[in-house]
């Protein structure tokens, strides 16, 4: 599953906002909590573990991930280290691409998601539902990110 948005901001500025857990809740419509869980660590990077908890309307499900890739302005990727009972697998990457524009900095952000439900015997039913919910919510998140960056 992939969702994209074009934003009037540089890849580096977009990347910095996405991975700044101090301001994440100012724009991220999916979450009620977002933090780095590694003691003494204040910035995201490869090997850093984070916790993101969904809004109440989404069951406040918490997903702990670890960054497996982190290249400022280009790509960041995370994989599941601990999650709610219904997730067997979760991984996400965020790709950044510069869009040539005579008006100034412009970029495309593409959010790629891999998700698999459990238990396995319910996966054919649950995984499509989870993908649908995440596709809708990711679209909302990216629209909110765009508004946040283009206002600030």
Major sheet description: 7 strands, antiparallel
Low-confidence stretches are none
CATH architecture: 2-Layer Sandwich
Query: What count of helical segments does DSSP give?
Result: 3
> What name goes with the CATH superfamily?
START domain
* Rg, nearest Å: 15 Å
Q: What gap, in angstroms, lies between the N and C termini?
A: 29 Å
Number of strands: 7
- The geometry reads as globular
Along the chain, the helix and strand elements come as EHHEEEEEEH
CATH class: Alpha Beta
Task: Give the helix proportion (percent range).
Answer: 25-40%
How are the strands of the largest sheet arranged?
1-7-6-5-4-3-2
Strand content: 35-45%
Q: How many domains, in number, for the residues?
A: 1
Descriptive tags:
single chain; 152 residues; alpha+beta; 7-stranded antiparallel β-sheet; 3 helices; 27% helix
Task: Give a brief outline of the structure.
With 152 residues, the chain is α+β, with helices and mostly antiparallel strands. The protein contains three helices and seven strands. A hairpin with a 3-residue loop joins strand 4 (62-71) and strand 5 (75-82).
Describe the overall structure:
The chain has a single domain, classed as Alpha-D-Glucose-1,6-Bisphosphate, Chain A, domain 4, CATH 3.30.530.20. The two termini are 29 Å apart. The protein is globular and about 55 Å long. The protein is 27% helix and 39% strand. A seven-stranded antiparallel sheet has the order 1-7-6-5-4-3-2, covered by helices on one side. The relative contact order is 0.23. The protein is of the alpha+beta class.
